[in-house]
Structure formats: structure tokens, C-alpha cells
Design a protein that fits this description.
The chain is α/β, with parallel strands linked by helices. About 35% of the residues lie in helices and about 20% in strands. The protein has ten helices and twelve strands.
Length: about 300
């Protein structure tokens, strides 16, 4: 394909004031002061390293940072939302109210409660959705999520009087469903959360301040707020196959899946689907007992290997 040259390439402009406008925008989305709250931020040595601590300090929080010294090579290196171990230690050591871990480009958020327990995207969506619903601000009383959300999420929000819509895996599918149905909260277990009232993409810093704002408004600890749902044991395995299209209409595999579904009943679920990008079949099961879930996944995986590998 032809490539642009010289003056056709375009221009680059430096706008140092843009980050100040972004910080001002973020602060306008919350109603409470964070004064008196000790917060540990893991910035993943990425794009949140400067502005996330600034926003929280300007909102009144006492801020402790880790993963806030990027050198161009250490992004997400044993830190951030995919490696929350260090954040967990720091939250407990400092007696912080909450720990917040971003990923490198800061579109995702994973939290740690004051006890050191992880609070993933399912919990965050449940907490924020319930808070919005209680004030009449959750459109159609519905949270949009993907098929990979934990079954505990669906049971928890249903008990709280909320509804859910499921999409294919990927925040772009979540966004499509939100726009189509007029919903204003959606996201994924991985920590992508979309507040369509404010912005049209996942923003970890926005999610973080919304979560802390909800804590302040409620007067509850994060461990108390997360009690809205119970996370069921979940196992996902990937099986490499020669032709993933042969999964469809395979009666023997369907029978194996149906058997597990019948045994789990309303206390769990099974999801078997081909990868969208690789020659893999993904097998996921959830249920109240970890060993039972592992056995179910093993049984289905064995049948798939016998049929397709």
C-alpha cells in the first residue's frame, strides 16, 4: 500500500494543559471528599503514574504509591492489575482503606480491600451498579457484562434487584450493547468498566474514584460493600485443536456438556466456546465446590480432546 511522505504525514502538537483539563473532569464526577481515607495506588509503571496520585491527593486522600517509576521497560513488570501481590502487602502493612491497581495503559482497575482480599471487575460492577440503582441513576436497572462474568455476579445483583445483559467477550461488545439499549454501566471481570454517562471507554482512574466515592457515601468498608456477591470457584482451560469449527453440532461433546449442566442445575454453569483468534476451544465451569468444578472441566476437556484433537 502507498505510504504518506513528507508533509502528508501530519503534525504533532504538545498540549501540556490537556492533563489539567482531564484531572478537572475526573474530579467533577465525584461528590465526596476523600479526606481521612488512606489509599495505596499501584500505577503499573504506566500511564497512570502521574495523574492517578494527583487526582486522589486533590480529592483529599492520603496516598501511598507503588509502581510509579516508569523507565520505559518496566511497565506491568510484577506490578499493576495483573500482579496485585505487592499491592496486597502494602494495603495491609499501612492499614489502608483500599488498594487500587491499574494496568499499563490505565483502562483497567483491580481493587484490594482493607483485609487484603482482591476485588475484581465483577465485584466493582456489582458495588457501583447497586449504588447507582439506589439513587435511580442506573439506566433500566441493568448492568451490561460478558458471558465470562462469574455466576456469583449474576446471583448477587439479581438478589439486589438488578438485571444484567450478557455479551461476547470484549469491552467493544459491551459498549455496542450499552449504546444499543441505552445502558450506562457495563464492563468485564478483568476490570474494564465503562461509565457511559461520562466517557465511552474503560478508564481505570475514573473507575477508581467512583469506587472510593461510593465507599465514602455509604460509610462502609470495601469488604462490607463486596458482600453484595459471592465469587464462585471458576476454572477455565484452553484446548488446542486442529479445527475449532468442528465443535459445532458434535453430539458427543454436546452430551458431555449437557450432563454437567444437569448436575450443576442452578448452582453453576458451563461455557464451551471456540476462541475468536486461535485454534482453541475454551472450557469454563463454575460451581459452589472447587474440586467438583475441576472435575467437570476435566471431563468435558477429555471428551473434546478425544473428538477434535
Amino acid at each position: 500500500m502507498p505510504r504518506p511522505v513528507a508533509g502528508e504525514i501530519g503534525t504533532v502538537s504538545d498540549q501540556p494543559d490537556a492533563k489539567l483539563a482531564y484531572v478537572a473532569f475526573l474530579k467533577e464526577t465525584v461528590s465526596e471528599s476523600f479526606t481521612g481515607y488512606k489509599v495505596v495506588l499501584d500505577c503499573a509503571n504506566g500511564s497512570a503514574f502521574e495523574l492517578a496520585p494527583q487526582v486522589f491527593r486533590e480529592l483529599g486522600a492520603e496516598v501511598i504509591t507503588i509502581g510509579a517509576e516508569p523507565n520505559g521497560r518496566n511497565i506491568n513488570d510484577k506490578c499493576g492489575s495483573t500482579h496485585p501481590e505487592k499491592l496486597r502487602e502494602e494495603v495491609v502493612k499501612h492499614g489502608a482503606a483500599i488498594g487500587l491497581a491499574f494496568d499499563g495503559d490505565a483502562d483497567r482497575l483491580i481493587a484490594i480491600d482493607e483485609t487484603g482480599a482482591e476485588v475484581d471487575g465483577d465485584f466493582i460492577l456489582s458495588i457501583l451498579g447497586n449504588a447507582l440503582n439506589q439513587t435511580g441513576k442506573l439506566n433500566h436497572g441493568t448492568i451490561v457484562t460478558t458471558v465470562m462474568a462469574n455466576i456469583g455476579f449474576f446471583k448477587g445483583i439479581e438478589k439486589a434487584g438488578l438485571k444484567s445483559l450478557q455479551t461476547a467477550v470484549g469491552d467493544r461488545y459491551v459498549m455496542e450493547e450499552m449504546r444499543k439499549g441505552g445502558y450506562n454501566l457495563g464492563g468485564e471481570q478483568s476490570g474494564h468498566v465503562i461509565f457511559l454517562d461520562y466517557i465511552s471507554t474503560g478508564d481505570g482512574i475514573l473507575t477508581a474514584i467512583q469506587l472510593v466515592n461510593t465507599m465514602v457515601q455509604s460509610g462502609q468498608k470495601l469488604s462490607e460493600l463486596k458482600a453484595i456477591m459471592r465469587k464462585y470457584p471458576q476454572l477455565l482451560v484452553n484446548i488446542r485443536v486442529a479445527d475449532k469449527s468442528k465443535l459445532k453440532d458434535n453430539a458427543i461433546i454436546e452430551q458431555a456438556i449437557r450432563k454437567v449442566e444437569e448436575e450443576l442445575g442452578d448452582n453453576g454453569r458451563v461455557l464451551v466456546r471456540p476462541s475468536g483468534t486461535e485454534s482453541l476451544i475454551r472450557v469454563m465451569a463454575e460451581g459452589p465446590d472447587k474440586e467438583q468444578v475441576e472435575a467437570y472441566v476435566h471431563d468435558i476437556a477429555k471428551v473434546i480432546q478425544e473428538q477434535l484433537v
